[in-house]
Specification:
The protein has four helices and no strands. The protein is mostly helical. The radius of gyration is 58 Å and the shape is rod-shaped. The protein starts with a helix and ends with a helix.
Length: about 325
C-alpha cells in the first residue's frame, strides 16, 4: 500500500514535472517568437525607411535637375529675346540710314536733271574691302560720310539752282544797248529815209552782237559750272557710297555678332545643363550607394539579432533539459 502510494506520488510528481517543462518550453518558444517577430518588424521598418529615404532623395534630385534645366533654358530664351530686340532696333536704324542715303541720291539726280546734266562716272570707294570692320568703328566715324554728303549736296543744289536774273539781266542789257544803237543810228544820217534804215541796222547789229556775246558767255559759264558740279558730284557720290557701304557692313556685322552671342549663350546653357545632370548623377549614385550600404548593414544586423535569439533559445532549452535531468 505504501509502495502504491509512493508510486502514485512519483507519477504525480513526474506529471507535474512534465507539465512544468512543457510550460517552460512554451514560455521559451513564446519568448523566442515574440523576439523574432519584434526583430522582423524592426527589420521591415528599417528597410522601409531606407527605401523611403532613397525615393525621397531621388525625387529631390530629379526636381533640382528639372529646376536647373528650366533656369538655364529660361536664361537662354530671355537672352535670345533681348538680342533679337537689340538686333531689330539696330536693323531699323540702319534701314533708316539707307533710306536717308537713297533720298540723298534722289536729290542729287533731281539737281542734275534741273541743270540738264548727265551723271558723271564715279569709281567705287577704295575702302569697300573694309566692310566687315565697319561696325567696329565709332559712331562719329560712321557719321562723317553722311555729314559730308549733306554739305556737298547743299553745294551741288546751290550750283544747279536756276536763277531767272542770270538770263533777264543780260537780255535786258542787250535790248537797252540795241535801243541806244537805234537812237544813235537815227541821229547820224542827215536825211529821214536813211535814218530809219540806219536805226534798224544799228539795232539789229547790237542785238546780234549782244546775243552772240551773251551765248558765248553763257556757254563758257556753263562749262565752268559743269566743272565745279563735277568737282562736287564725284566726292558726293563717293561719300554716299561710303555711307551706304558702312550701313550695309553694319547689317552684316550685326547679324554675325548676334549669331556669335547666341551661339555663346547656347554653349553656356548646354554647359550648365550638363553640369547639373552630372551633379545629379553623382548625387544619385552616392544616394544609391548609401542605400545599398544601409540595406546591407540592416541585413547583417537582422541576421546577427536572429542568431542571438536562436542562441538564447537554445541556451534556455539546454538549461531546462539539465534541470529536468537533475
Amino acid at each position: 500500500k505504501r509502495i502504491r502510494a509512493a508510486g502514485q506520488r512519483y507519477q504525480q510528481q513526474m506529471a507535474e514535472l512534465r507539465s512544468s517543462v512543457a510550460r517552460r518550453q512554451e514560455s521559451i518558444q513564446g519568448q523566442y517568437d515574440t523576439q523574432r517577430q519584434a526583430t522582423e518588424t524592426t527589420n521591415q521598418t528599417t528597410l522601409s525607411q531606407i527605401t523611403r529615404k532613397r525615393d525621397e532623395t531621388e525625387a529631390a534630385l530629379k526636381k533640382q535637375l528639372e529646376q536647373a534645366c528650366w533656369q538655364a533654358e529660361s536664361a537662354f530664351v530671355a537672352f535670345e529675346m533681348r538680342v533679337d530686340t537689340d538686333e531689330q532696333k539696330s536693323k531699323q536704324e540702319l534701314e533708316a540710314r539707307l533710306a536717308e542715303l537713297t533720298s540723298l541720291e534722289t536729290s542729287v539726280r533731281q539737281a542734275m536733271a534741273r541743270f540738264q546734266m548727265t551723271a558723271f562716272p564715279v569709281d567705287a570707294p577704295a575702302d569697300d574691302a573694309a566692310l566687315p570692320q565697319a561696325a567696329d568703328q565709332p559712331p562719329t566715324v560712321l557719321a562723317e560720310p553722311r555729314q559730308q554728303s549733306l554739305v556737298l549736296l547743299q553745294e551741288l543744289q546751290a550750283l544747279t539752282q536756276a536763277r531767272i536774273l542770270d538770263d533777264l539781266i543780260p537780255i535786258g542789257s542787250i535790248v537797252a544797248a540795241a535801243a541806244l544803237c537805234a537812237v544813235a543810228g537815227w541821229m547820224v544820217p542827215p536825211d529821214s529815209a536813211t535814218k530809219v534804215l540806219a536805226a534798224i541796222g544799228a539795232a539789229l547789229g547790237a542785238l546780234v552782237v549782244g546775243f552772240a556775246g551773251w551765248l558765248f558767255y553763257r556757254a563758257r559759264k556753263r562749262r565752268k559750272t559743269e566743272a565745279r558740279v563735277q568737282a562736287v558730284y564725284v566726292p558726293l557720290m563717293r561719300s554716299i557710297a561710303r555711307a551706304g557701304n558702312a550701313a550695309r557692313g553694319d547689317l552684316v556685322t550685326a547679324a554675325a555678332a548676334r549669331e556669335r552671342r547666341v551661339k555663346e549663350a547656347r554653349r553656356k546653357r548646354d554647359h550648365d545643363v550638363n553640369a547639373a545632370r552630372d551633379k545629379a548623377k553623382s548625387l544619385q549614385s552616392q544616394a544609391a550607394e548609401e542605400c545599398r550600404a544601409a540595406t546591407a548593414a540592416e541585413a547583417q544586423r537582422h541576421e546577427d539579432q536572429l542568431a542571438v535569439i536562436e542562441r538564447e533559445k537554445e541556451r534556455s532549452l539546454e538549461e531546462l533539459e539539465q534541470n529536468r535531468e537533475t
